[in-house]
């Protein structure tokens, strides 16, 4: 599965996450799936109700509104994303434990160590992590 993200959306994710650092930024990804390609049509920025530097919880009301908008646009919930302000772009043990949807993509944007790094992961029910083919265009 290939995942496509627009360059403008990537740059906005970085800007938004840097503005909120050291708190983890988070949100949802809405888009389409066709011919083995997940295309992110919109990145949703949601409130981290934990206001934490090490974990996040999505605001339920904002989450509901985002999914409602996705459905109205004919999009699917492709997954979620969050930032790691002070750690690498890989799922933490907590990230793996909380990855309830084995069909979802989990984007992790690291701001740690200079240049930002964005990766997408698939997490199986057994918490096996596989890096996905994320293409920023």
What's a quick, concise take on this entry?
The chain is built from 3 helices and 8 strands; from the N terminus they run E-H-E-E-H-E-H-E-E-E-E. By secondary structure, the chain is an alpha/beta fold.
Notes on the structure:
The structure is a single chain. The relative contact order is 0.22. β5 (105-110) and β6 form a beta hairpin. The protein is built from 3 helices and 8 strands. Strands 7-6-5-4-2-3-1-8 form an 8-stranded mixed sheet. The chain is an alpha/beta fold and 137 residues long. The mean pLDDT is 96.
Descriptive labels:
137 residues, alpha/beta
Main beta sheet: 8 strands, mixed
Give the N-to-C terminal Cα separation: 16 Å
| Strand order in the largest sheet | 7-6-5-4-2-3-1-8
Structural class assignment: alpha/beta
Number of strands: 8
Rg calc: 14 Å
Shape: globular
Assign a percent range to the helix content.
10-25%
- Mean pLDDT, to the nearest integer, reads 96
Write the layout of secondary structure elements.
Blueprint: E1 2-5, H1 7-20, E2 26-34, E3 37-46, H2 60-72, E4 76-84, H3 93-97, E5 105-110, E6 117-123, E7 129-131, E8 133-136
Parallel strand pairs: 1-3, 1-8, 4-5
Antiparallel strand pairs: 2-3, 2-4, 5-6, 6-7
């Amino acid at each position: 599965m290939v995942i496509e993200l627009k360059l403008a959306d990537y740059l906005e994710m970085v800007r938004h996450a840097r503005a909120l650092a050291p708190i983890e930024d988070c949100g949802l990804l809405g888009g389409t799936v066709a011919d083995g390609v997940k295309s992110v049509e919109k990145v949703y920025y949601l409130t981290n109700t934990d206001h934490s530097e090490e974990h996040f919880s999505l605001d339920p009301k904002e989450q509901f509104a985002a999914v409602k908008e996705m459905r109205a646009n004919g999009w699917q919930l492709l997954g979620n994303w969050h930032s790691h302000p002070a750690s690498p772009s890989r799922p933490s043990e907590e990230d793996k434990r909380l990855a309830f949807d084995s069909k979802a993509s989990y984007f992790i944007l690291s701001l740690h160590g200079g240049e930002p790094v964005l990766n997408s992961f698939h997490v199986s029910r057994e918490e096996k992590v596989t890096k996905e083919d994320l293409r920023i265009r």
